[in-house]
User: What shape does this take?
Amino acid sequence: MGSPPAPGHLREIAAVFLKLGTTSFGGPAAHIGMMEEEIVRRRGWLTPEQFLDYLGATNLIPGPNSTEMAIHIGHARAGWPGLLVAGVSFIVPATLLITIAAWAYVRYGELPAVAGVFYGIKPVVMAVVAQALWNLGRTAIKNRGVAALSLAVAVAVGSGIHELAALAGAGALAGMVRLGSRLRGPLLGVVMVSAGTATVSAAAGASAGAVAFGLWPLFAVFAKAGAVLFGSGYVLLAFLRADLVDRLGWMSEPQLLEAVAIGQMMPGPVFTTATFIGYVLGGPGGAAVATVGIFLPAFIFVALSGPLVPRLRESALAGAVLDGVNAASLALMAVVSWELASAALVDPVTIALGLSSLITLTRFRVNSAWLIIAGGLLGLALG
Assistant: This one.
């Protein structure tokens, strides 16, 4: 960055991501959809092409994708201060809400009853995701070959192929098509390395025996998760089960399932599940340590990779690979959205709410945050 960012830019970044962190329900796909609406279409901070490039980059590094996307946007808007402000602002609302929920859980032994609110919110979230997929797809799907590649990735991931292997494979294939078969060996090597990454967490978890609970071991568990974990909140569940339940014995399986459930119910990043677990295990100090542990690697990875993303377009090979990764990223988002829709659109009321929300978003450009609030109030009224 040539000059220091204006304080007004930092305040604007904080306001945008505090709002997104408070209203972005539904997991990473929904978060990305709301960011696309707010950052690309409403504010013009990034072009659709730039947004897709950063989305592709977040899928190639471990950690919480939507949080890393927020950090990338902050850096692109206001340099290193923007990186910190955007990431922290996106994380803080969910952290505060989930800490309150954890306090209630520890004190009363159960979670607050909020099923009605989420009954109304989920269909609106699906409308936001559908709109974002359409808008981003028009930019990313540049020709029939890219469309076929995106469809192939969706089928592969739906069949059980690891997400990272599918992303790396799509990038490798796009690069080979662009520059010829002489690159086949090096690019396919990327696929093999990426596919092997899925086993890192299991190997690391098996390398140590049970240890007594403490804040430093707690930090280590969640820092490891943030540093090596690719995938969705369900992957996080499997990872934490191996460490916290099987290896360390710090939690029971029902406790872990409840922790992941409340993390998915809250707005903002699903990885704030760590905050809930930390509070249950170690009170406020445990919540703070677990939260820092799981999110710190994301700031480090984006700080290292973010400045390189704009330069990738200067290389024919890197640009082709990034195009392939972008198409694959949208395919992953579509697969996740399909799975979420089966749980959100469960009856005629939710289907009607989702369709009406989609029409309102596309025809009247209403801010999705207001629709989400309205959906929550309607769901609460319907019980």
Observations:
- The CA atoms of residues 259 and 273 lie 6 Å apart.
